[in-house]
Amino acid sequence: MITLTEWYAQQEKWLDQDLVLMSSDAGWKKRTQKHGINIWQRSFPDDKNDLFRWRIPVVAADFREVFDVFVNQMPEYHQYWTAEYSGGFRVKEVAENAQIIYQQFDPNIPLISKRDLLYIQWSRQIDERRIQTSFRSIVLDDTPVPKGFERIDWWGGHLFEANPDGSSQLVLIDRENQGGRFPSWMMNQTMPTYLSHQFQSIIAFFEKGGTAAHEKLPDAQNTALGLRQAWLS
After folding, report:
1. 132 with 123: CB under 8 angstroms?
2. φ, ψ for residue 7, nearest 5 deg
């Protein structure tokens, strides 16, 4: 996890790093293919959990709409492609193109704790056909881990690209250290199956009309909202 001070110093470097990882096959190992989509994997010395990458070649929406959903409306719609998502909210903006987000996840599996995630996301327009966003878990003194939760250490990135026909492509990188007693070897083994279900759900979300055809997560079901009030009080 990073601090806000580290983010201010390293944000451009991390954007450049993530763009290379999302654009080049160098250093990646092809792990599996599901429904015509390759899932790639690679290790890094700072964490036993591996980084994964996949590209959805056709998303049935303009790349700017897909960007808006994943960057500006994630707390309201994340449940449609991550079944264990149980709520979240925007903590604060730290720059014109950067904000901190909080999310909670309930796997509803015996002996597996609930998870939460506190991360900073920031974006840049690469050219008229591409937008990039990066994500890093962040540490803030005033956002402690709630009782009964384990905090995920996440590294992620998205690349939104326009297709000539008005659809778009979506590239994702994802590394998740689940914390607690969840072993890295199990995470590395199960991620490809998990990600294949996730990208199928993302494809279906936009094929069925995106936000215009799906309901936002109701406040009554957003389990994180009570914590937000506690943090603000």
Report:
1. yes
2. -65, -45
Q: Which run of H or E residues covers position 21? A: helix 4-23
Q: Which superfamily is assigned to 4-232 in CATH?
A: START domain (3.30.530.20)
pLDDT of 229 = 79
- If you average pLDDT over residues 171-189, what whole number do you get? 91
The full set of domain ranges for the chain reads: 4-232
71 token code pair: 């960057």
Rg over CA atoms, the chain: 17
Is this model's pTM higher than 0.85 or not? yes
68-115 per-position pLDDT tens digit: 999 999 999 999 999 999 999 999 999 999 999 999 999 876 557 899
How many angstroms separate the CA atoms of 159 and 125, rounded?
A: 10
Cβ atoms of 72 and 188 closer than 8 Å: no
* Residue 57 contacts residue 169 (beta carbons within 8 Å): yes
